[in-house]
Amino acid sequence: MNSERRGPGFYVLTAFFVLFVLFLYGPLSTIFILSFQGPNGGLTFPMNGTSMHWFNNLLFEKQQVGDFGGAFSRSLILGLMTMAATVVVSLLAGLAFRRRFLGSGPLFYLAIASLIVPSILISLGIGLAFQVLGFEPYWYSSAFGAHLTWTLPFGLLIMFAVFNRFNPAYEEAARDLGASSWQTFAHVVLPIILPSLIGVGLFGFTLSYDEFARTLMTSGSFNTLPLEIYGMTTNVTTPVLYALGTLTTVFSLAIILVALLTIVVLRLRRARRLAG
Amino acid sequence: MTLSRLVPRLAPYLQASPLALILAAFLVLPIATIVMVSFWDYDSIQIFPAFVFTNYEETIASPVTWSTYLNTLKYTVIVWALTLFIGFWVAYYLAFHIRSATMQMVLFLVCTVPFLTSNIIRMISWIPFLGRNGLINQSLMQLGIIDRPLEFLLFSDFAVVLAMVHLYTLFMVTPIFNTLMRIDRALIEAARDAGANAFQILTNVIIPLAKPGIAIGSIFVVTLVMGDFITVRFMSGGQSASVGLMMANQIALLQYPAAAANAVILLIIVLLLVAGILRIVNIRKEL
């Protein structure tokens, strides 16, 4: 299939793919554009002049509803906590699953179940469990646990993919050269899987930062950013909503970009070191 | 046994224990609590321990429940069919028509990035398109195709399905792309040498080998749509119902035992659907 001329199927599918990408990005780009509405502009086109009015309004004026700054910092901290926990716990579990151990089957199915159980059940269940046990729900306790039930299975599956492709000869070589098991891990295994760990971290952060359903009943009395944005959709009828959407999306894109660049740099460095 | 021998044996248990503890505390315990509370009783201000079946009886006896479950299944079937169609062809295009590995990775990332941004914002972003004065209505009116704005675009079943396809297609693309990339290209060569045309290669070689990916993608989409409430609430403007939304409303009214009974029924249905998919396709070798 790779060696021959492009058939008509190629052009049909290219058009289909382009349409799909437009479908993915088109709506997002309209709220980017509309967030620069003039001060008298509305929620839809046409643009009524262009301005930074709604960004100013969002960042420097007191909003009638909500606490955007507090919600953002809570989501940021929660995202970082979820990222760190997801990387460490998935890595450890990924290492464990390289060997057979009692209960590995049930633990694996439990992790898969964590992906399958609808988010609202996790949210309701954790909310109820905290209530029954008499704990107060907080975004850094109950919501943190709720987010982990979503990010850990993804992290684990990525670690499976990594270790399935991992060549154990590297470790054997290190051990033959007299490295202890900690040295083997720190100087051989970890550098090789580091790019994938950054991927796990990226998933952990962004999935937590954007999570809505699992936070709904578990965040306690303070809102995270997605809850705040959702609250705004029912109260706010100005483009300030789009300004917020634009800012958080740009923030997400920046995080993705930083993670991807780090992965590329690590790969290049490793390739250079192997070549030299 | 000396310590040096014991440690390597214990290592997998120590390494797996954080995952096991987190899942026990935040998955198993909460679901057990839901099951327990589904037998509790409640009045307008509080819930209290009991062992009653009224929550299940009321849920099952209510015609609203049945129509809500049917509506949710309707969304599931439509969204599943659409995401499968779109997801398969996108994955097929990436796997078989893009020739350089770098380009494949770049285009795959282009498809993945929206998944890492907020679902709520991606839903909000349909408003300027679909609204009464949105882009679609404006363009159609300017072209003279319609003389009044179409009302069904936003806040309708159409909008719900559109947004779900927008949000969830990636869950189909990724697993199918993954299986397609693993197909040995020699098999396709062999099929062509044996005289198969492109359509026969697709139906006799590629689709059978892509089945595990299709199954994994289907499990994702089915469970996401079955449990969805935010897309339905937002995109239907409160005019359509889903099981998740019914639960969210019961939760808002503090009718936790009723919501819990609903949750147990939903969980059973979701697990049956997943079991059904797994019966048709064996995904073990993918994992």
From TrEMBL, chain A:
Residues annotated as domain ABC transmembrane type-1: 72-259
TM region(s), chain numbering: 12-36, 76-95, 107-132, 138-163, 184-207, 240-266
Short name of any one Pfam family annotated for the protein: BPD_transp_1
Subcellular location: Cell membrane
Keywords: Cell membrane, Membrane, Transmembrane, Transmembrane helix, Transport
Keyword Transmembrane: yes
PROSITE patterns attached to this UniProt entry: ABC_TM1 (PS50928)
Membrane topology category: Multi-pass membrane protein
InterPro entries the UniProt entry points to: Bact_Polyamine_Transport (IPR051789), MetI-like (IPR000515), MetI-like_sf (IPR035906)
Family statement: Belongs to the binding-protein-dependent transport system permease family. CysTW subfamily.
Name recorded for this polypeptide: ABC transporter permease
Automatic annotation (TrEMBL), chain B:
Annotated transmembrane regions: 20-40, 75-94, 106-130, 150-173, 256-281
Coiled coil: none
Keyword Transport part of the UniProt annotation: yes
Subcellular compartments: Cell membrane
Membrane-topology annotation of the record: Multi-pass membrane protein
Major subcellular location class: membrane
Alphabetical UniProt keywords: Cell membrane, Membrane, Transmembrane, Transmembrane helix, Transport
Residue ranges of every copy of the ABC transmembrane type-1 domain listed in the record: 69-277
Cited CDD domains: TM_PBP2
Annotated family: Belongs to the binding-protein-dependent transport system permease family. CysTW subfamily.
Protein name as it appears in the record: ABC transporter permease
Organism ancestry: Bacteria, Pseudomonadati, Pseudomonadota, Alphaproteobacteria, Hyphomicrobiales
